[in-house]
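User: Can you write out an input/output pair for a complex, sequences first and structure second?

Assistant: Here is one pair. Inputs:
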Amino acid sequence: MDDQHLLDQFFTHPDCRKVRSCIQCGTCSGSCPLAAEMDHAPRELFALIRDGEIDIALRSNTPWYCVSCYQCMDRCPQEIPVADIMYRLKQMAIAAGCQPRSHKLPDFYRAFADDMGRNGRMTETHVMARYSLKHPMDAAANMATALKLLARGRLDLIPNRTHHPAQIAALTTMCRKRGSDS
Ligand code: SF4
Ligand code: SF4
């Protein structure tokens, strides 16, 4: 998929169109608790997109490191829905096959969503087990910590389930469908 097509796709979305009104004040980056870990903090990411560098934006770790704290959105003088745009970028990156530099991030998100979809509630050990199927070396590296947490009763082996997991499963299926359709 060429960059122009991706850019058109990005700016088709009403939330993403608001990036055009970004005044590059940097309030979002200054408010973001994960900015130091991101390849491009939000202000820089939007500058890249407006310069047509959507490919770089889609391959960056920035959307994957966003923890949806919404501090940027609370403070943006242009009321740009930064966190919502991060979700859109993640959807686009998956659809376009643009893996971030750390290709593990989408796998972790999938493991989390799969567990939520199955049980309606997340169980850390199950999320890590799903993730470890693809990244066994990470599992080995974290095993000592996991065993300590288990010994102190801080991790559950039995899955946490809501009373009606099928309702959450239907919700996650609908969200995935909407994500792939949009
Ligand atoms: S706070 Fe809003 S206007 Fe300022 S750089 Fe961030 S997105 Fe742009
Ligand atoms: S919502 Fe995401 S981008 Fe915005 S401040 Fe929080 S972590 Fe950073």
